[in-house]
Amino acid sequence: MIIRTATTADVPRLKRFRTAAAAWLAARGSDQWSTPYPDELLLASVKAGHVYLVHDNPVTDPIATVTLDRQADPVLWTDTEAREAAFYVHKLTLAQPGGGTGLGARLLDWCGDRAARAGATWLRLDAWTTNTRLHAYYQNLGFHHVRTVDAPEAYGSGWAGQRRAALRVTTIEEVRGGPGARLPGAPIGQAAAAPNTRRRRKGPSR
Prior knowledge:
The chain is an alpha+beta fold.
């Protein structure tokens, strides 16, 4: 299994991931991801090198996507927390959700490993406020519920959780996604500035 940095050529595929995930959630009574994610924010995340695609092998279609960055959402995290060394997981989406393959957990382990290797203390994420099954899923994977923010600015995704970033043995191999692609593994103090794509970014994280 490999993970690569997404390129601008992947944007249509990433949009299809979201549309399919929203339909899957809607069929189960959830309004999560019912609003399209702004194209300009998705493109900015891709260009910043924060979006990843997972493949079973180099010649198969992607089976999952995740966004990993260092941008603390000020709506969800305090100023003190934002100053802590942390990586933030967004839009963790599987092509076949609910399949019981353990892929979501493996991908979170990869994110935590990347964070730890970069010197981060925390791996953080947020989840749809009303998706209690997703909350339980994350807690079963070791994430501690920090708070739930019930405010319009949370865009429906106000459940915030974190766990310690830790080095993990992973079977996911990292490869470059294209010209200029990079992994977010530089030491925390050496992170390059990136556009803020955090607002209006919410969606299923599993």
